[in-house]
Amino acid sequence: MALFDVGGFKPSAELRGQIFPAKSHLVDRVNHYSFGTKTQEFALPLGVDPSGFLKSCNSEGGVCIDLNHGTTTLAFKFKHGVIVAVDSRASAGRYLASNDVNKVIEINPYLLGTMSGSAADCQYWERLLAKECRLYRLRNNHRISVAAASKLLSNMMVGYRGMGLSMGSMICGWDKKGPGLYYVNDNGTRLSGSMFSTGCGNSYAYGVVDSGYREDMTVEEAYELGRRGIVHATHRDAYSGGVVNMYHMQEDGWIKVCKEDVSELIHRYKKGMF
Amino acid sequence: MEYLLGIQGKDFVLVAADNVAASSIIQMKHDYDKMFKLSEKILMLCVGEAGDTVQFAEYIQKNVQLYKMRNGYELSPAAAANFTRKNLADYLRSRTPYHVNLLLAGYDDTDGPGLFYMDYLSSLAKAPFAAHGYGAFLTLSILDRYYKPDLTKDEAVGLLKKCVEELNRRFILNLHSFTVRLIDKEGIHDLEKITIGTKGPITA
Predict the structure, then answer these.
(1) Cβ pairs A/B, distance under 8 A
(2) Which of A116, A181, A191 should one mutate to test binding to chain B, selecting the residue with the greatest count of B CBs within 10 A?
(3) pLDDT tens-digit readout, A10-39
(4) ipTM of the complex
(5) Neighboring chain B residues of A2 at a CB cutoff of 8 Å
(6) How far is B164 from chain A (nearest CA, A)?
(7) What does residue A249 show for φ and ψ, rounded to 5 degrees?
């Protein structure tokens, strides 16, 4: 991107602009590596203003459409990889749309993404990320690193800043540097860390996982901790529930660990609680 | 919520930033580094709106590196500060303003040390000491009271510790660790982190 100008490369849109002077660039296939450069090319139809449209759809505009991050997802790194645990409830306002949604997106056999916020946004952009990761592998003959994959996703988000995307996702994988975990947000935040939790039940999950975490846990202890984190969050948070979907990211790819109903689990744990 | 501090001494600049990356009431990271190395002797400290900080800082960082590649020599701290301010001003007058507050600290071989204060409205001021964030309300007066233009390195670190102690005493938010760096004619040096109280969440 910085070498764009050094190379004297003229994007085709600019050339077209010189031949057909028009106000904005119409691109049918977007190149996602061009974020942040002066010539911003986004797949938006002419005359559309997403930010203005958004304002008319908020409570200020008199319409009651509020996007909720109604979910709890968590992921943490430990000695034997990354544990990803999510709930499975989809709420539309006060209505329970589904109690059996899979909020883990299997980007490829060695990369996982979680979903919170708008399901459509998460699924679409992470699917697009899967495409970019595959292209990277084909072009460069080695797998993309977790850092690079999360940066690609974060740049996609930054490009559509202010236009109403809603996505809070954790990108988990295992690359040359070992287990990798990144948190990527619709406002362009990208953080690397050992443990993250997203959604409106995240505070409850943080409480349980922070107090039970040890770097040298066994695999079974880590599974139990992930399970506990989601179950306790679903107990307190009305917008989380359903089942716990748990994945374990290992050196040679991820495995799906379990899918357990939270109501059964909470009864099992009940003995120590009240 | 976030705090940046810069103190210019006789032949060095001392900078410090807190280490918290927060999202509403949750600390997502407790060891987050808010300093961006623009060149061998220039550091930029950047706080503000969530996605904007990293995007803008990396944009400036890469452009400063590009200048060096194109021209064979580096931008001076004053030039880098003015370049940053111009970009901030241009974006402010566009549809996508960047809401970031910056401190730019550097050592110029001809002009000596320099500390530049910039805010999201693209104001620029060269100052002997500066701070950003709510913590600035508590610590600027301490800097006014005890600052001298010919501070030694140890005196500057002592002044920084006074500021941090005051934050610990009076600021309602718990900022328990600060990254500290020093820029002098030899380059950028990492000093010992200043920590108060117990460590944050998972320390893996």
Answers:
(1) 64
(2) A191
(3) 666 565 555 555 444 545 445 555 444 444
(4) 0.84
(5) 62-63, 65-66
(6) 25
(7) -90, 115
